[in-house]
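pasting for the record
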Amino acid sequence: MTHDRAALDALLTEKRRFAPPPEFAAAAVVSDPAVYERAEDFEAFWAGWAEELDWFRKWDTVLEWNPPHARWFDGGKLNVCHNCIDRHLDGPRRDRPALLWEGEPGDRRTFTYAELAQQVGRFANVLRDLGVKKGDRVAIYLPMIPEAAFAMLACARIGAPHSVVFGGFSPDSLADRINDADARVLITADGGHRRGTIVPLKANADRAVARCPGIEHVVVVARGGLDPVDMVAGRDHWYHDLADGVDGDCPAEVMDAEDILYILYTSGTTGKPKGVVHTTGGYLTQVHATTKTVFDLKDDDIYWCTADVGWVTGHSYIVYGPLAAGATVVMYEGAPDWPDKGRFWKMCQDYGVTVFYTAPTAIRAFMQWGEEWPGGYDLGRLRLLGTVGEPINPEAWMWYHRVIGKESCPIVDTWWQTETGGIMITPLPGITRTRPGSACRAFPGIETTLLNDAGETVDAGYLAITRPWPSMLRTIWGDDQRYRETYWSKWDGVYFPGDGAKIDEDGYLWILGRVDDVLNVAGHRIGTMEVESALVEHPAVAEAAVVGKTHAVKGQAIAAFVTLMGGREGDEALTAELKAHVASAIGPIARPEAILFAADLPKTRSGKIMRRLLGDIAAGRALGDTTTLADPAVVQSLKDRYEAKEG
C-alpha cells in the first residue's frame, strides 16, 4: 500500500470528536449502544430485521455458509417490489409521496405510493407483453428520471434481473455489459438533460445494440425531446405507446430469497468489468435495516441521496432501501451546478430536505464554489448529513459540518462497495461520537478486522470482513472462479474488499483507499487496465500505463504515461485526442487528467512496467527502489519531465 505520507499522518492525528446532539439522540431510531452487543448473535440480529419485511413464506434457515458461498434466509419466499410498494398501500403511507422528482430544466413530478404502484405495475405488464419472463435479464440505460426507478421495480416485480448501466458510459461499455449479461431487452430514453445539453442516449444505445445480437426489443422513454429519433421497426418501441391502455395491476412474482435481483458491473484489476450478482432476501434485509438506522429515517423525513441509479448507491439508497422503509425520496436528473452552483441548496430549501447523502467529491466542489451558495438558501430542515463513495478528508468533513449542518447535524460517513450491497462501516447517528475522516465502526452484525499478508491481525493493514453478511454479492455473473480469486483467495474464508485501513485508539476504522489497480475517481471505480486498454487501441499509442494522482476535488484523478508508435510526436493536439478517445471508449468519467508522452516506460528486466514508480512520480513522492529496473535512468527522466509539465 502506498499513500501520501503527510496526508496520512495528518489524518491519523485527527483528535476532534463530535457527540450526537442530545435532542437528536433522545429521539433516534437507535439510541442504545447495547445494539452492538445484541448483534453479536448476528444470525438472530439479521433475522429480526428480516421479520420487518413481508414474506410469502418464511425461511427455513437464516444462513447456510459454505465459503465463499452464502445462502441467507434459505427457503424463504418474497418479492422486493411488493416490499417496496404493496405493503405500504393499506396504511397512511398509501397517499404519502414516495418520489419527488425534479428534472434539470426545472420540471417536477410527484408520485404517492399508490401512484407508484400503478406506474410500476404498468411497466411490469409492458415487459411481460414483450415476452420478458422470470429469470430473463433486462438492461437499463436511462437518465435520472422516475422511469429509471419504475423500470428497476418492474423488473423486480416480475423476477427479471436488471442490469443498470450508468448513462455516462459509452456505447462500447454498454454493449459489453449487455452481452455479458445476455440481456434480451434494453430500456433507454431518447436523451437526458445534463448541464443544459441533451445526452443522446438513444443514439448511443443504437451503436451499442449493433454489437448485441441478443437484444430483441429496445424500449424508449420520451424524455429529451429529441427529434427525429431513429426507431428500428419491430425492435424499437416508444414506452408511452406500449403503456397506452395497459393495466397498472400486475401480480408480484413469488421469488426465492436467493433468486437474483440484479447484476451490476464494477471495474476490476483486469480489463473486463465484473458482473456483481445480488440476490433478493438478504440484500433487501440489509439495505432496509441500514436505511432506517444509519439515516435515522422517520415518517416525516424528506430524504435525498444525490447518487445516480447507474451506481450501487442508487440501487440501495435511492430505490430499494428507502422505498422498503416507506420513505419520501427526492430524485434529481441533472448537475449540481446547473443553472448555477446553488442548485442543490435550492432543492433542499424547496423540498424541505431533512436527510442529505452525497459524495466527498461533491463536498469538495461545494467548498471551492464558496459558502455564499449554500448561505443563500434556507437549509434549516436538515437534521442529518451523510457521505458515500470514498473516504472523506477531515477538512471537507468539517466544512460540511459547519456550513451545511450548522454544527447541529450528525454526519454519517459510510464505507461500503458494489460488492457488499449495503453499508458496512458507519456511525450510528444517535449513539456514535464521530471523528472527522473516520467511518467509525462496523455496522451491528458486521465483523471486520485488519490483516497483513500473512493473515495476522494488525493496527494498520488490509481491511477484511471475517464473516458473511446478508447483502453480500453471491458470485460474479458467469465466472464463479473469478469471484473466488478476486475476493476470497487472499485469506481462507475471509473477504478482501481491496482497501487499506487503520484502527485508532477508540477502535475506529480509518479507510485509506484502494490497494489494487482500481482507481476511485469522484467516487466511481475505474480499472487502470480498462483505461490502458482504451489508450492502446488508439493507432498512435504503442504502450500505456495508468496510475492515480491526488486531486483536490475528485480525490483521485487519472494520470497516463504513454509511448507512441515510431515517428509520432506527442503534442497538445494528440493529448486532447487521446483524452477524448478514452472518454468515448469508456465514458467521460475515465478521461485522463494528465498524459505524459515518454520514449520508454520504467520496466523490470523481465519487461514488467513498474506502475509503483509511476505512482510515485504522479504523487510527487521520492522514488522507491529502482534497482530492479532494466534502465534506472528512464524513471528519473520521467520524473523530471512530469514535474516540469505539472509546474
